[in-house]
Amino acid sequence: MTFIGLDGFSKGWVAVTLDGDRRSIDFISDISWLATQRFARAAIDIPIGLGDGGVRACDQLARKKLSPHGSRVFSGGRRWLWQDFTDPDLANAEAERRGQKKVSRQLWHLGPKIMEVDGFVQAHRDLDIREAHPELVFLRLNGDVPLPSKHAEEGLALRRHLLTANGFSDLDDWLTVRRARTGAKRDDVLDACAVALVARDCVGCLPEGNAPRDALGVPQQIWV
After folding, report:
1. 74 has a pLDDT exceeding 90
2. What share of the chain has pLDDT > 90, as a percent?
3. Torsion angles phi and psi, residue 207, rounded to 5
4. What distance in Å separates the CA atoms of residue 46 and residue 38, rounded to the nearest whole number?
5. pLDDT of residue 137
6. Are 41 and 202 in contact (CB under 8 A)?
């Protein structure tokens, strides 16, 4: 069976495919690439299942689990933010008018990718595509011991070690030769590997049990 993990970067997506003992990596420009692949399940590091209010139980649970590094979870995605506005200040003014939390600049700039995936998921409900968060995966692989920041060399080295121990024998080549001139960063490659493990294993989810669903019936659940 084939499983795919995806993580976004400035020019597209890092896609890591697990097929038995085979590991492969692709740098793709558009999420529609998934429709050309044959896979049992895919996991992606992006919010899936958006509400009008911006509050999701899965985000709150993920922040708690990653404490004291809960800020690694971007929350507050709402379809209307990017459907109705092109200016973050105007979008935040509307959020205030509605009595909602403002959107951060980091999350705002993820909007195009969030909407890209949202549209794809709605159009391909026959495909098993799940939301994942790489930091939750690395926490699990590290025995629930919090990790240093992935933006520090120590943190990158630990994440690389954990992935190598889980079968990613070509990781050094991916981080150097394959990544060169793609625009992807080292942590983008590592994160895509982590969520590929989620696609394959699906050992747990936040929240557990039946997932809450948004107004369009899309589940709001983060798999780990």
Report:
1. no
2. 95
3. -75, 165
4. 21
5. 97
6. yes
